């Protein structure tokens, strides 16, 4: 069967590109024909991530901090200078922050999580949207989380930040109503990743994290998700196959939020 979800020639900007989900998404977008602008604050990790792309991929790497407005404007400008447009924007950079109860959370750490996860998403949309609105087309996909849909112990600040991402997504979709620009978000569940390992370890300080069978018992699919499965939803939302989809929060969680 012919793959209908093609992105041939389109330009996709991916932040948090050096992370496991960012890397998997870049790989899939490139396989489907997209030209890439890979953004991350870790230069060496970014170079490593780009090395794993298909040999035919066209990719520009930009080292930038998503919390710095000048640097955000810089990666948008670099994308336009290199490729002339931005067709898809995967606004993906994020951190989990400390794994602590609210009573022990420092204000500095609280602000850092919101700065990356909320301000970074806001700034990305603020600077990419004018490009897309001018051309009257484009797709923005923000990374939220099932933590933005439900509470979970010891990650209150992360959860608050992801609730905010969903709110930003829905509001931006309304502001783009009547244009060719769509705004959605993905809400990954328990994905096999460094972030999940950090959260699990933080919930069991000084002890081994719970065995995997105890974790997956809470997931109807009875397994952890893979970064490639999040990437598949991002690629769909970036494509014309999602032309009637805006303001949505797509869960990629093996049924966790339905349980």
UniProtKB/TrEMBL annotation:
Q: Which GO terms describe its molecular function?
A: oxidoreductase activity
Q: Sorted alphabetically, which keywords does the UniProt record give?
A: Oxidoreductase
Q: Does the keyword Oxidoreductase apply?
A: yes
* PROSITE patterns the UniProt entry points to: ADH_SHORT
Top-rank taxon, per record: Bacteria
Q: Which InterPro entries match?
A: NAD(P)-bd_dom_sf, Sc_DH/Rdtase_CS, SDR_fam
Question: Which Pfam families would you find in this protein's record?
Answer: adh_short_C2
Name the PANTHER family for this protein.
Answer: DEHYDROGENASES, SHORT CHAIN, ESTRADIOL 17-BETA-DEHYDROGENASE 8-RELATED
Q: Which family does it belong to?
A: Belongs to the short-chain dehydrogenases/reductases (SDR) family.
Name of the protein in question: SDR family oxidoreductase
State the organism of origin: Bradyrhizobium sediminis
